[in-house]
Request: fold
Amino acid sequence: MKSYHFRILKSKIISVFLTLFAILSTVPFLLVLYFIIKNGISVINWEFLTSLPKPVGEPGGGILNAIVGTTILIIIALILAVPFGIFTGVFLAEKGDSKIAFLSRLVVEILQGVPSIVVGIIVYLWIVKPMGHFSALSGGVALGIMMLPVVIKSTEEILKLIPREIKEASLALGVPYYKTILKVVIPAGFSGILTGILAGTARIAGETAPLLFTAFGNPFLNFNILKPISAMPLLIFNYAVSPYEEWWAKAWGASCILVVFVLTLNIITRLISKR
Amino acid sequence: MTDIVLRTENLTASYDEHIVVKNVNLSIPRNSITAIMGPSGCGKTTLIRCFNRMHELSPKAKVEGKVILIEKNHQIEEIDVYSIDPMLVRRKIGMVFQKPNPFPTMSIYENVIAGYILNGIKLKKSEADEIVEETLKKVSLWDEVKDRLHKKGTFLSGGQQQRLCIARALAMKPDIILLDEPTSALDPVATLKIEELLEQLKDTVTIVIVTHNVGQAGRISDYVAFMYLGELIEYGPTDVVFTRPRHEKTEEFLSGKIG
Amino acid sequence: MASRFTRKLALNKDKIFNLVLSFFAVLLIFLGVGFFLSLFNASYLAFKKFGIGFFAGKNWDPVQEEFGALPFIYGTILTSFIALGISFPFSIAISIVLGEYFQKGFFAEILRYLTELIAGVPSVVLGFWGLFFLVPLVREIEIALNVPPYGVGILTASIILAFMILPYSASIGKDAMRLVPNELKEAAYALGATRWEVIKKVMIPYARSGIIAGIILSLGRALGETMAVTMVIGNYHGIPESIFSPGNTIASVIANEFTEATGEVYLSSLMYLGLALFIITTVVNLIGRFILKKLQH
Reply:
């Protein structure tokens, strides 16, 4: 009987130990969050958000170029990835056992795992090189490619969950197939598709590697999508590896804004998909 | 001679090389309730899905033979269902499914006129209001929902949802409504309500109901067809078939030996 | 008969709609094929010059136009596997805690959020944090151990990578543990096994392929991770002598040198590295996903 008590004790000790280990693994995240907020929050003020960077040595200045840049890049990515992703997702949900569907799914899986730096190289080859210079457009395309598999997967999965009866009810009313998909099936899966778009946006908002040789960065305000443009993660990278303390402070401020934005998107996504 | 609304000629339907409906010849009288009964897998659902061309939605499905719809407006017109566009057929022959399936994104009001909305048929506000009220009254749902017409249809009870789906089909003013075991997902009280409702509706529309419930077929139908292994075994007025079945299989089914 | 005419039009629209759907699906396939072909084409020059021997070459010398990828391949594999080693015990602990001890409830939710959200922190921010928090810390350790105190290097990069991949393997591992049938667990309890014995002898063996798939998929992440690694690995072109020395990974070399590469052979060699990275991560990922898919069926 003694050994049985020993075994129970051992089981309990291990469970405490494992739980502590699991709790311990949240420490890096909390540390990162603490560091960013501690160093970043004091930097953020109205001027920081609404003015352009100033040369080293001059006080003040902000990151408006990066905020505008990231907004424009995300918009370009959304314009490309949302229709492309939804239509492909519909195709996979509707004609799932065709050969085309098999190959498309394979590409989706490859895209889900492709390193973002490789996407940067590809878009450099496809757009930057033929155009002869870096541009916001190429950066947006790179981010759009990163976003695409997320939108496709979430569209396909939510549409597969919509009962066949809903689609049949519409067809039985004499509604053509295309209208049934556009007006009944897609609206029924709207929340799932929206989740995918938000998750996709969260994925790309902080991406740096695909922008290094596409959007490239720009210290000035730019609204022309054919010219190089700044972005929050690019600015953080350039400032972080610079030797200037005041630029580090700017990078902390930018990191703080970016992390809050991305984490908020992540949490909203989780809350919607839970419902 | 009785007034026929739909007639099949040597109708054979298959799915993935399996024949599910074999050479069926059937004439359905206008403004009556016809019940199609038989054990599960006998092809009764496939049969009615051939009437409104829903069967062909499955990629591996095939249909042979004819389905003729006889319309009586100013004159009598015979329409070969398989020679015109399926969308048009489905507006003339409505359908109600086993599980209540109101459109989840639409309100009760919108669900009733969904056929118009989705087909892009413009209705004036007054016309739409009229159709909604009239149709909901026909399915005895008006009093229960008139205060919450703009709430989602999915908040209703199962029986109410199914009546809403019947309303949705009726609103298109079809010649026939096909019901595929419409009460199998409902409780007895809701079932009874639907059965009473069907009795009232047969003055305006022809009703074809698929059921594997012998009692239900006996309670509500004027004519009954018995199918077994894809074949139409027996068809006639309900009281005749129920009291003096001519076929041994029918008798076995009615007495609960098969099914 | 007017209605019949408009209905015919609807059929055409259905056809057009189907064509549009297929068009996007086919476009996606072209995108995938295009990825491969473009990279292959761009690296052809380097391939012709160095052949497969490129991956065994120890020198990366832009001045002499001599390019060998061995140090970076070594750096990539070293950082990825050290990261796997660091994250593994934590990943298993989280899988067991969330997959068995706390499957529902407030604590489980909070723990899950806190372990998974680090995947949402942009890589560049983690790298920045690494530079200012982890690098000084590692430097202290190096001073204590009496090795050259670079701070940056293979170890620092591996630690950051471990943080980044942990959520992937932990989340898949947790799902795998939750898939263990209750009857199986109960049968073991009925035989008098303790909770730990059930976990060790019933659940982990049952969930093994899921756990392995999670590890493989997180390896795929680690191999291609760029920004955080680039910022803390030290960018040294030689083969690292120990885990404390600076180094480079395939991804960090590309990130650092791509925009500065002058000369066609130089650029083509970077593309060749990119092609290799693309193929390796794709193979690793597809293996991981294949195992997961087999599990779901």
